[in-house]
Amino acid sequence: MPEDDSLRAAMIEAAERQLASSSDHEVATRAVCEAVGVSQPVLYRLFGDKRGLLDAVADHGYERYAALKAAQEQTGDPVADLHAGWDGHMAFAQANPALYQLMFTPRPWSRSTARERVMDLLVAALTRCAAVGALKVEPHTAARLILSANVGTALDHIARPAPFGDNALSHRMRDAVFSHVLAEPAAANDADPLHTAALRLHAQLDLTGTQALEPVEAALLRRWLERITHPARS
Q: Is residue 234's pLDDT more than 60?
């Protein structure tokens, strides 16, 4: 119902304001209801309980985070965009410390999808890096490593706000984890990066082979790579 949607949005905003302003980053359901002018049974009907309300606030925080990411200019250099994404993540944590903790600190019985959806955004950014040959590991593994480092650094800075004024620690952590997952990208002027990648993979198979595939599977992979590199022969 439209009225319920409006009430739900108003209560989420009231809870987020209370979360940000309280010294202990706690939310009182009675105060949320009073701020919106409804009784507590309305909160229970819309959110189930306080945990449901907190999950809704966390997921609304993701929407704000995603909007900031969407507004971030996407350049032709996915690695540079990844660096900017790390700094943007830290800036969001600095601007919204209580909301950030709600989104990323584990809570028993939480059903919030905020962290998983942030992970999806990061996987998409890393897939762009992989497409230009700039990734050493597959995107989901790289995303888990990077997000863990980014969240850990942000939570450490929230606990000790002074480091937010100095990017040195954050960038040292960023550079350390990026050096583990990133490789030198392929030439930016490569007119057909898929063709180049297929040539490299075919050559590597010829040089070293692979134990990951059965012989018939390896032969099929070679056939596919040949079709990419020499479509006229197909």
A: no
Average pLDDT taken over every residue of the chain: 89
Q: What's the rounded Cα separation, in Å, for the pair 53 and 37? A: 16
The fraction of the chain above a pLDDT of 70, given in percent, is 95
Angle at which helices 2-21 and 97-104 pack, to 10 degrees? Answer: 110
b/e per residue, 28-62, with b = 16+ CB within 10 A? ebeebbeebebeeebbeebbeeeebbbbbbbbbbb
Q: Please, are residues 182 and 79 in contact by the beta-carbon 8 Å criterion?
A: yes
pTM over 0.90: no
CA distance 140 to 164: 28
Taking the C-alpha atoms of residue 83 and residue 134, their distance in angstroms, rounded to an integer, is 13
DSSP codes of every residue in 15-31: HHHHHHHSTT----HHH
CB-facing half-sphere around the CA of 113: CA atoms within 13 A: 5
Which string of DSSP letters, residue by residue, matches 188-219? TT-S-HHHHHHHHHHHHHHHH--SSS-HHHHH
pLDDT in tens, 28-83: 999 999 999 999 999 999 999 999 999 999 999 999 999 998 888 889 899 999 99
State both tokens at 174. Answer: 């960023």
Q: Give the C-alpha separation, 95 to 207, whole Å.
A: 52
50-71 vs 97-104: helix crossing angle, rounded to 10: 110
The contacts of residue 44 (CB under 8 Å, 6+ apart) are none
Three-state DSSP at 33 gives helix
Per-residue CA distances from 52 to 7, 49, 60, 224, 229 (Å): 15, 5, 12, 49, 53
